[in-house]
Design a protein that fits this description.
Blueprint: E1 8-9, E2 14-19, E3 22-27, H1 29-35, E4 38-42, E5 49-50, E6 55-61, E7 65-69, E8 74-79, H2 82-85, H3 89-92, E9 101-105, H4 117-124
Antiparallel strand pairs: 1-2, 2-3, 3-9, 4-6, 5-8, 6-7, 8-9
């Protein structure tokens, strides 16, 4: 299981890549493997300001539907349009083309509350 060093992680198996006050958010390799084949992604929160822990979208897999949670407070600037026609990008490339949303980070200090790669590896037993 991949856990890139340049990302921060949540207990809900999401990651965030921070670039200044912009963040890219997606699900981890562990999450996609647990979900199985992903067939649909719904994100209707573009333009909304959400708090850490708020649901920003859902992922539908063959076995289940799972909510996706904001890692930090932010405004959803954009969703990954590729996921509309290719939801399986979350399975194939969760840290690259399978990113889910781009956010403006409102409270950068919240990043410090997220898990480091080592802490996330411990969480998932890797």
């Amino acid at each position: 299981m991949k856990v890139p060093e340049n990302l921060k992680y949540t207990n809900d198996h999401e990651w965030v890549r921070v670039e200044g006050n912009i963040g890219y958010v997606g699900i981890t390799d562990y999450a996609q493997s647990e979900l199985g084949d992903i067939v649909f992604v719904e994100i209707n929160t573009v333009g909304q300001e959400l708090n850490a822990g708020d649901v920003y979208g859902t992922i539908e897999a063959v076995k289940t539907v799972s909510d996706c949670y904001m890692p930090v407070k932010g405004k959803v600037l954009e969703k990954n349009e590729k996921l509309t026609d290719q939801p399986d990008l979350l399975n194939k490339d969760p840290y690259g083309d399978g990113w889910m949303i781009k956010i403006e980070i409102i409270n950068p200090s919240e990043i410090e509350n997220l898990l480091t790669p080592d802490q996330y590896r411990s969480l998932v037993g890797n």
